[in-house]
Task: structure prediction
Amino acid sequence: MTDYHMRQKKKEVVGDEEDANALKRNVEMTEHKENIEELLGRLKTNVDTGLTAEQVKVSFEQYGENVITPPPSTPEWLKFLRELTGFFSLLLWAGAILCFVGYAIEQAADNLYLGIVLVTVVMVTGIFSYLQNSKSENLMASFAGMLPPKVKVVRDGAVDEMVAIKLLPGDIVFIEGGDLVPADVRILTCSDNLVVDNSALTGESEPQKRSVKPTNDDPLETQNLCFFGTQVPEGSLKGVVVLTGDNTVMGRIAKLAMSTSSEQTPINKELHHFIIIISAIAISLGLIFLILGFVIGTPIVENLVFMIGIIVANVPEGLLATVTVCLTLTAKRMFNKKVLVKNLEGVETLGSTSCICSDKTGTLTQNIMTVAKVVYGEASGSITHDAPSSFTGGRKTYDVSDESFRRLLRCSVLCNVATFNESSKWLLDDDEEKITDADGSFIPVPFEGQVVQGDGSTITSVNWKPVGNASECAMLKLVQTEASGGIGDAEEARKFNPSIFVIPFNSKNKYQVHVHDIKDGPTTVLMKGAPERILDRCSHILLSGRVVVMTEAEKQSIVEQQEELSRNGLRCLGFAERELTTREYPKSYKFNTGDEKYDTANFPLGEDKKTEGVHPNATVGLVFLGLMALIDPPRPAVPPAVAKCKTAGVKVIMVTGDHPVTAQAIAERVGILWSKTRGDMERDNERFGRSPGDTDWEDPDSARAIVVPGSTISVDMPEERWDFILDHPQIVFARTSPQQKLVIVENNQRLGHIVAVTGDGVNDSPAIKKADIGIAMGISGSEVSKSAADMILVDDNFASIVNGVEEGRLIFDNLKKSIAYTIQSNIPEITPFLGFIIFAIPLPLTTILILAIDLGTDMIPAISFAYETAEADIMTRPPRNSKTDRLVTRKMINFSYLQIGLIQAFAGFFTYMVVLNSYGFPPWILLNRGSAEFWGVQPLFCKFKGGIYVNQWGEIDPILTDPSTSAPRAQYPLWAESTGGYVDTCVYPLKNFIGTKTGGNVFSGCSNDVNSATWCGRANIYNQPNGAAFADGHHQTPYEAIRATEAAGYYRYIPFKSKTSPFWEDAFLYWDTTQSFFQTGNLPFDGNLRIFFSGAIPGLYSVCDGDTLLTPTAAENANFRGAEKPDRPPASTSICPTPPQPNNGLLWPANGDTAFSQDALYCNGLQFDAMNFADTQSCESVNYPDTAVPLADTTPGSAFNPHQTFYCYESCGRFVSANIGDLFYCPKAGQSEMYSCGNFVDVTCSFPCARVCYPPVSMSPAATAVLPSNGPFNGPLTTDPTPLRQCMNIGAFAGAGQALKQSQGAFWGAIVIVQIAGLLCMKTRWLSLRSQGMKNSFMNFGIFFEILLVSWLAYFPPLNYALGTANIRLTMWFPAIPFAIFIFVYDETRKALMRSTSPVTVDKFTGQTTRKAGWIERFTYY
Result:
């Protein structure tokens, strides 16, 4: 695999599997065990002079810079490209490309719009995802921040400061308190008080003692090593650098973090699974119907367009945007709950979590050492009391007025060097300056305050910031808490009781001593330290303020209480004092810790008298004051949060670097452990002498809880052992290393868990990165852990994780509901195409309207599910099984497609048919009539059973009274039902002429451009250039096919019902052919009119006149889909005009096929002879088919062809009469009224009147003589201000086309109406809508928006024109409403039956519910 392909992975994987396993093993070092001389020799350095310049040069070549090597970075353009090329994005790209291809082939604007919108969707969501994910920080950059800028180094015998990246193994370094450790260092010499803060490395909250001695084989536990990235809070050292850069322990952790591949998120898996399913369905259906289209003879372009339509109908284009927006909204909501989401998909992952591996310090606990218990002497003896903390539930049981307790407080604050940061006591501005009130006084900050956590709970927080040792800070806060009733303000107590001598704490003595000059009292020795050391030095005890001799019983009681506190994970400190008499210790007394004669202090410390060199004063015993038990207490919100996890079936595992006893105590306190551990049973059996077989013997193998020390596990441990440990429902891992944390996560994942890991230290980063969802602490977390995490707890509160689990489950539920809602419209979107392909009905729904649903009306309702509240059982059901409980399941497909979707499809088709029927197109005539080449493009011819012919005003034709036997006249073109009339069947005339020839235009100076002012537009043969532009290679309908259709009893159909519709325009009956017809006819359109009239050219073609011999081409089947041949006309019927052609039968051969002709005369309403047309054929037989008119005759026939164009001056108007003598009206000289000319050659008529139309005329020299010389009949080029307009009756196909637009708009509206019912159904998967309620205001807005949008898109231009919708009647919205009501009632009934047939049981230990699915749930619960 190339480097490029390696970079394509979501997370980098460094090294092979063997190297990765080596990294997961615990740190192996020998530098801490080597003899110091041998180590220095191996490193070729000297403790006094350090490395030489030559050695530095050689070592630098070998080791390089002291930095952690970052991984190869991914270019930003490649990151952006990845966001645009996900599988779903690729599917949308493919759809867009198909749309553009369809547009290039067919020039259909809706394909262009669809392609543009699909590209826009991919680009917008890709940009959004890129911007969101670009917020992630560079993980390795945060490791670099752990390196100090400069460090003191000895080289060539000189001490100098240099940048830390130049350090090499063998360098001798000096590190002071407050410094960061620049590399892994072996301590050569150090101060007695040297401690290191290893929390970033091991998670230990307490500073760890360091010395020159190797105290443990484990390098992380030994005291003579300091590690890169840790801090020295106190003390100083001189050491030798043993490891640098990638070889340091921190470098190994960094490498382990980078070598850890992140798991694919559950939501990513689910979306991929869903996309595979939906793509398979979409592509399969598209290919099936593409093949089917070829089989039934659908033209390739139309076939491709239909395939695009089916794919688009199946693919929820808005899903990508919906998922992104839903996750973003949820992430924003979680941020309000103090959870920062870095990876959007992590939101849902948290909801899928079945196991939480949580760090203890700072997550389950407050990361603040607190005094939880105090022990002091009362009259009856020493008693343990609660101090206020979350460990004790906020209780305090001590008596502040008790003198013993007050003396204990005094000792804890005076024998203590911790202080409060002075600036934290005052209100500061942005410049860290104190703020004053109106009186000019500084505004103090209260000592304590309430802090609201992300889950809404509050904790008491100390506003004053303590500085010093964590344990001493805890005691300082307790004293300050009781300032009003105890010994007063801590700082004041120190001020009035000054220290005069101090013995600092050291690891040998394990105590700290202060001598204070007590105000109004004697000088007093105060001691604090390990309880066992303090007790051994005490001879007396203070009980209720009285000093009494300590008895063995009292001492034993204190020891037992201390052991009990330690077993509960508390760290105990003992306190003692001794008041000194002024006689023995006057003010001038010099206190010391030894002199030339004595090795001990010269004041009471309770030293053993037998010790050699002890000062006599030091043997005086102390007075025991009591104990303070400290702990990092659990957060108050954690126990209920853990309980909620148990109820939700989420296992919470504690993984900590702390001691097992402390870890177990906290785990029990927060509820992670709630029964006896394996170790507890073993200890109890041993304690009480139980053996196997005894009635009271407890079998450790039956323990449900286990505490596992890190020393007992490793990456090489057999899986069986891991399975045994992880099979326990209650688990604590203690004293774990970073490598072990990672292995714990991996084994949980191996068992099928979705694992969430929390942590705050560098040591946690590999496990955080490996986890399905990594969670870092916002306050106490290191930059490394934050960088590796998917989410950050801003308030470090574990309870926020549980809130996140609920939010994650909610988002999965809501995404499932949103998808179920979105895909239920697929069936009503697909079935129109199926009907169009299979049954050849007019297309009920266009691709652009499908897009309007998916990206318009459905978008806001789909997104509104992100705001839906949780159902009641969301945190009582177990975590979803990622293998069975998928985002999209078979049951969801069944429910959304085959149940709700089918009902919605029925609603759409019902509405579609109701609308078409209301405009005169009943359902039974739609089959095989819906081809895009015919419906709305070619006139429909029908057989009528009864009915009447009427004009546009509803006036009945007085002559033709039986539409079943006669074609309508030009003056009465509309058919009405009247009483009992109906349309029987309908056909289209055949297209059996194909123009193929080419040649010159018959008129000199004519333009081939129909939009040109010089376009003749009146006379062409299709074998000429203009004709070729129209017909070359296209199937056309000749006039003879119309005659044959009429001879079979089918007549042109213009339903009078369409005349009563809102889309109808009377101009359809006299349409200006130079204007393109566009939808409702009221929007100007400058497109090429060929596009519209390609199926009905203004004029007629005569095969008989153009091909005298009727020479056929090779027989070709003319059974175009949607264009059935009408019945064969009777043998006596002359299709060609008189005289009959000898081979007339070739137009209708006996075998049922149609012979195609390649020659036809184009007639558009004028005769060509007068214009010197070379062809001797005449158009008279087409213009006046029932009367043969000699060419020289000046009296035209009266039987005008109603299918032919006619002419008007200035603009098209009403066709008045078929009798030419009645048509010419003009003003008589000096008069305003209109007079008939009487006949055509009347010289008093100087000019035809405007908006008066007439049929074609036979032009003769006598006729043209009376017209103006520049009139339109005198040549094709005219500048006459009232030009001649060619007009045509397009009512048959314009009415059908507009009725289809109405029905498509109504189908679309029906889907929206039933989708509202579907939306209400999808609000819940289990509960009734009555229980869930309509509290989702965004969804309520979505419903309103959906209705508003569909109305806007349907009624308001120009959007309705772009979408192809029409201004449908209000009543057309109603047919879908019963279906919507049925959907809602059906679903509510289904859910009620489901709830009643699925019994629920509750686990008595965890509260988790288990539902036994009934048959309705098994088959319909999605």
The chain has a mean pLDDT of 76. The chain has 45 helices and 47 strands.
